[in-house]
Write a structure and sequence with these properties.
Blueprint: E1 5-6, H1 7-15, H2 19-27, E2 31-33, E3 36-37, E4 44-45, E5 50-52, E6 65-70, H3 76-81, E7 107-109, E8 117-123, H4 126-134, E9 140-148, H5 155-161, E10 163-165, E11 168-170, E12 174-179, E13 182-188, H6 194-201, E14 205-214, E15 217-218, E16 227-229
Parallel strand pairs: 8-14
Antiparallel strand pairs: 1-4, 2-3, 2-5, 6-8, 6-16, 7-8, 9-13, 9-14, 10-11, 12-13, 14-15
């Protein structure tokens, strides 16, 4: 019986590629061991059948962006711990195959409001990170806010044109009723606590806040605690 060896070494023996090419093939999800994709070059193999996909490319995987439907009240570090191959939304398990490298070197952007749930963005793509940070004042975010209480007269109009609360000027926002106890807010670069202040200013108490969209990207039908990939057609 032969001693276990690294998958990358076995691949070099099989196809005559360089060590770096072998690592890129494996990390790109192009290599199977007994029919199962293995994306760890250090994975130990013995007598298993190792195969390289006929369409394999020895290039670094494209950077990914992950859209998480975060539970309420969770911090960014804890939210990142929720991201794994197992928590990919069932409805979105097509097109892109989860690889170990997709969960490395992720950076969070556009923090949620305190105690809010909903869309959190984690990305490996420096262009997307720059877009979400440098252009944050230009990108609209949309929230669904569950409230209770009775809105003051002309409350929606006051929200739309701007108002003050406890001596503080509040920004004008797009506001509409989704149903009898849920408001939709759309605003650019919302400051911490601003949604609660806006609601209080028109006589309402916030029960819950959920972010559903950043720019042109919405969380869609992703269950809480699960995630999906940003597609190539979506733009913030």
């Amino acid at each position: 019986m032969t001693d276990p060896i690294r998958l990358s070494k076995r691949l070099i023996e099989l196809v005559g590629c360089s060590r770096r090419e072998a690592e890129l093939f494996i990390e790109g999800g192009w290599v199977t061991v007994d029919g199962e994709v293995i994306d760890e070059p250090q994975f130990k193999v013995e007598g298993q059948k190792v195969e390289l996909d006929k369409d394999a490319k020895a290039t670094a995987p494209e950077p990914v962006t992950i859209l998480l439907n975060a539970p309420a009240g969770i911090d960014v570090e804890s939210a990142m711990q929720l991201i794994s191959a197992e928590t990919l939304s069932e409805e979105h398990r097509y097109g892109k195959r989860p690889l170990r490298g997709h969960f490395l070197r992720l950076t969070a952007s556009a923090d949620l409001q305190a105690n809010a749930s909903g869309l959190l963005v984690f990305t490996q793509d420096w262009k997307i990170l720059r877009k979400l940070t440098a252009d944050s004042a230009k990108i609209e975010q949309e929230y669904v806010v569950e409230v209770e209480g009775d809105m003051v007269a002309h409350g929606l109009n006051r929200l739309t044109h701007g108002l003050s609360y406890k001596g503080k000027e509040l920004p004008a926002v797009k506001a509409s009723w989704q149903n009898e106890n849920r408001l939709r807010f759309a605003m650019k670069n919302p400051q911490p606590g601003i949604i609660d202040q806006l609601c209080q200013a028109v006589g309402l108490k916030v029960i819950s806040v959920r972010r559903i969209r950043i720019g042109g990207v919405s969380i869609g039908k992703v269950p809480v605690g699960q995630w999906r990939y940003l597609s190539g057609k979506e733009k913030f």
